[in-house]
Design the sequence.
């Protein structure tokens, strides 16, 4: 992963953390619904990026 991709990944992570924080602050605190939304959005955003950039590409 190059420096540009790392910076983009960092900016995306900071944006996701900011949005999750604003959800908890304006959404009534830590509730099951808010935790579900945070986990689901994290899976949707970061699992494909992990598969693309961090998983070793071993094809036998």
Sequence:
């Amino acid at each position: 992963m190059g420096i540009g991709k790392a910076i983009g990944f960092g900016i995306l992570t900071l944006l996701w953390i900011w949005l999750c924080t604003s959800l908890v602050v304006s959404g009534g605190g830590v509730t099951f619904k808010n935790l579900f939304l945070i986990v689901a959005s994290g899976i949707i955003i970061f699992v494909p990026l992990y598969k693309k950039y961090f998983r070793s590409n071993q094809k036998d």
User: Anything to note?
Assistant: The two ends are 22 Å apart (CA to CA). The helical segments are 3-26, 32-53. The CA atoms of residues 34 and 40 lie 10 Å apart.
